[in-house]
Write a structure and sequence with these properties.
Elements (H helix, E strand, L loop, with lengths): L16 H5 L3 H16 L3 E7 L6 E9 L7 E4 L4 H8 L3 E3 L3 H4 L4 H6 L3 E8 L5 E9 L5 H35 L9 H15 L4 E7 L6 E9 L2 E2 L7 E3 L14 E3 L3 H4 L4 H6 L3 E8 L5 E9 L11 H67 L7 H26 L7 E4 H10 L10 E5 L6 E4 L1 H19 L5 E11 L1 H6 L9 E10 L6 H4 L17 H11 L3 E6 L5 E8 L25 E5 L3 H13 L3 E5 L2 H11 L4 E5 L7 H11 L5 E5 L17 E4 L4 H8 L2
Parallel strand pairs: 15-17, 21-22, 21-23, 23-24, 24-25
Antiparallel strand pairs: 1-2, 1-6, 2-3, 4-5, 5-6, 7-8, 7-13, 8-9, 8-10, 11-12, 12-13, 14-16, 17-18, 18-20, 19-20
Helix pairs in contact: 2-6, 6-7, 6-10, 7-10, 10-11, 10-17, 12-13, 13-16, 18-19
């Protein structure tokens, strides 16, 4: 029945049709309850909605009781006639003796209710949504009870529609506030929101769109509901702004066409074909006020003016903005995960290439040296000389191939420093760590207030943090654990700076600190001493390059590194970045000149390499030059030889050796013999700064394999 009332009730109606025509929603329900009570002398009238479909509980949305409105409340319907109205989906009318018929209804007995009339209210699908009922203390008689029931029956369709609308609005409000949407994907939540808007605002169509970053002149429709059904075009198709009412939303304000839509936008054939005459659009923004999309309502009837001021519109806009932002965040996360996967693949390929080059270059170095020795002992006309020269040329071709592999494996480059907020780098980097990489561990942030500005390469600083966090996660091992990432301002004096690893070039004074702390099992002193050595690892299948790379990054930034760890007590890595990067690069102090060889005596050279074939080949090449050679297979043997047979006129040291590597070996040898001239050789070179010995900067490095001419030039320059 329409709001104007019921001509069917006749001129003698006891209801005020004009008052009812001007009401809607809860106001209409209350006005109707008031008029039934006054018009038919009822002592109690309620309009109630079902809370549970079985009819056990009802929620009163409008009421009259002895002239008072009781407000919203719920009650248990068991034992009362209203339960039969709901379950039977049919009117129940009792002019008298209702107490005898329903003796378990305590309220009827307490209030001495004797007459009753109740009518079910149906929703749009024909299901019972609630009921309207009236009760009398004095028996009203059959005629009055029947008249009241008839009036309620006439208005039952309208009351049912109002209840359904109120329930839809409540459901939409809950959705707009985010209730129950957290388990849905952003796409599903947007589709649900479009359907709820279409029902709640009773329009023909509702859709939600996103600004298309890849096509500024168009928007992307993400969800569309037309007549209660998901529209076929509600995917991610692009729709041009030009000639559409949505174009006005790009100015950032709501846009309403209450009627006359077809005349205003004649190019839109769809409006005429579907009979759409009104439009309302609302722009959607992110937290920074950037326009990210919009939603729109279209109808084949008039859309009321002032709709943009509705609280429900505001809730829909808030919910739409949340889901669009969540969608964008998930898209960025997927892109970051893909980028991370590509980086890891590249890192794995680089590791493979580096490992092959490192091992193969050691083999090439031995063969190169032996071919050089063979040619030195063969006359030019010897039949084998040409074959040996062919072998040597093949080795040189192999060496070029290995250099290409090494160029790929090393990758990267010099840092590109800029003024950066360390806190922002931390947040952005950790947002890229997939949940599966955390292995169930909690990653907690403890960031200093405000910005922590330092001059750094944001990509390399992020790589350093990523490696430190993943290393900490793996260090915790099975079970639960926590990785805490902290930042704060700090200041280091000269003495403090010198105690840091890789902190020798770091200027004293203000700095920013990045700390990564884990609750793992910690490390012993021997392990701590080696964790930054390339290829050293305690993890099965580990690469042994992560912390070496972290050392290189902090060194290239002229920063400092400190490790605090003990077995059973977890580990803490502290990375210090100088606040100002304008300080001049500190150059290593010039070493004491190597003693000149004694007159009439051969040069005495120390060769250190863990590969016997390489030691023999290098020793042979040096002996060709008339040198006396002492050979050692590692750090300890080299120190022992220096103490027993030193001093030496020079040293040739392999960079990568088991245990203590070449840079540490040279550093200890120079402590025992200051100014020792040295040449480093490596199948996979990394700088002295990367190894934590920037004072050794300038030491000549030979890539394996090398010719005897390169060896002589480097050692005897």
């Amino acid at each position: 029945m329409d709001a104007s009332g019921g001509a069917a009730l006749g001129a003698g109606s006891r209801l005020d049709m004009e008052e009812l025509a001007g009401a809607s929603g809860a106001g209409f329900c209350q006005a109707f309850a008031d008029q039934i009570a006054r018009g038919f002398g009822a002592d109690l009238v309620t309009v109630s909605a079902l809370r549970i479909r079985q009819g056990e509980h009802l929620k009163v949305v409008a009421s009259w009781f002895d002239g008072m409105q009781l407000g919203d409340f719920e009650y248990d319907a068991r034992g009362a006639p209203c339960r039969d109205v709901v379950l039977r989906a049919a009117p129940q009318v009792f002019p008298d003796r209702v107490q005898q018929l329903y003796p378990e209804d305590a309220m009827f007995i307490e209030e001495n209710i004797n007459g009753y009339a109740g009518v079910p209210l149906l929703d749009g699908a024909g299901a019972v949504a609630g009921l309207v009922q009236a009760a009398w203390r004095q028996p009203p008689g059959a005629a009055l009870t029947a008249a009241a029931a008839a009036a309620m029956q006439q208005f039952a369709p309208r009351l049912g529609a109002e209840l359904a609308g109120m329930q839809e609005a409540a459901a939409l409000a809950a959705l707009a506030r985010g209730a129950g949407a957290g388990s849905l994907s952003p796409q599903a939540a947007l589709r649900q929101l479009a359907a709820e808007m279409q029902r709640a605002f009773r329009v023909r169509r509702a859709f939600i769109a996103e600004c298309a970053a890849d096509s500024p002149g168009a928007f992307r429709v993400l969800a569309c509901c037309d007549g209660g059904q998901a529209a076929a075009g509600g995917g991610e198709g692009l729709v041009p702004y030009e000639g559409a009412p949505c174009d006005f939303l790009r100015e950032g304000e709501p846009f309403l066409v209450p009627k006359g839509l077809q005349g205003m936008f004649p190019a839109q054939e769809m409006f005429r074909a579907q009979g759409l005459v009104s439009y309302f659009g609302m722009p959607l923004r992110d937290a920074n006020g950037q326009l990210i999309g919009h939603f729109a309502l279209l109808h084949d009837g008039e859309i009321a003016a002032g709709i943009q001021n509705s609280g429900l519109i505001g809730l829909c806009a808030e919910r739409g903005e949340q889901e669009l932002c969540r969608r964008r965040a998930e898209r960025r996360r997927r892109q970051a995960e893909q980028a991370l996967l590509l980086r890891r693949k590249a890192e794995s390929l680089g590791l493979l290439a580096g490992t092959i080059a490192h091992e193969f270059n050691n083999l090439l170095a031995g063969m190169q040296g032996r071919s050089e020795l063979a040619l030195a002992h063969l006359a030019a006309a010897h039949p084998a000389a040409a074959d040996v020269r062919a072998v040597k040329e093949g080795l040189q071709d192999s060496a070029r191939l290995m250099r290409q592999l090494l160029s790929y494996a090393r990758g990267g480059g010099a840092p590109q420093p800029e003024a950066c907020d360390l806190n922002r780098i931390v947040r952005e980097t950790l947002a890229l760590v997939p949940a599966e990489c955390k292995l169930g561990k909690a990653v907690v942030l403890d960031l200093a207030a405000g910005e922590l500005t330092a001059r750094m390469d944001p990509a390399q600083a992020g790589q350093l943090l990523m490696q430190a966090v993943l290393n900490a996660v793996e260090a915790i091992g099975p079970g639960a654990g926590t990785v805490t990432v902290s930042t704060r301002r700090s200041s280091l004096g000269t003495a403090e700076r010198r105690r840091l690893l890789a902190g020798r070039r770091m200027p004293a004074g203000p700095c920013v600190l990045l700390e990564v702390r884990d609750t793992g099992g910690g490390m012993g002193r021997d392990t701590v001493a080696r964790i930054f050595d390339p290829f050293f690892t305690t993890k099965p299948g580990g690469r042994g390059l992560g912390l070496a790379a972290a050392m290189g990054i902090i060194s290239s930034h002229r920063g400092g590194l400190e490790v605090d760890s003990r077995e059973g007590g977890g580990s803490t890595f502290r990375f210090y970045f100088p606040v100002c990067g304008t300080a001049a690069v500190q150059t290593a102090a010039p070493g004491i000149a190597a003693p000149a060889p004694r007159k009439g005596q051969a040069r005495r050279i120390l060769v250190v390499d863990d590969e016997d074939t390489v030691r023999r080949a290098v020793a042979g090449l040096l002996q060709l030059r008339g040198c006396e050679v002492a050979s050692a297979d590692g750090h300890d043997a080299a120190l022992a030889l220096l103490q027993a047979q030193g001093p030496f006129d020079g040293a040739v040291i392999d960079m990568s050796m088991p245990g203590r590597g070449g840079w540490e070996t040279l550093s200890r040898l120079r402590q025992a013999q200051p100014g020792l001239n040295a040449v480093m050789m490596s199948g996979f070179a990394f700088s002295a700064a990367q190894a934590g010995y920037p004072e050794l900067h300038g030491v000549q490095v030979l890539d394996k394999p090398f010719t005897k001419e390169k060896l002589y030039k480097a050692l005897f320059r």
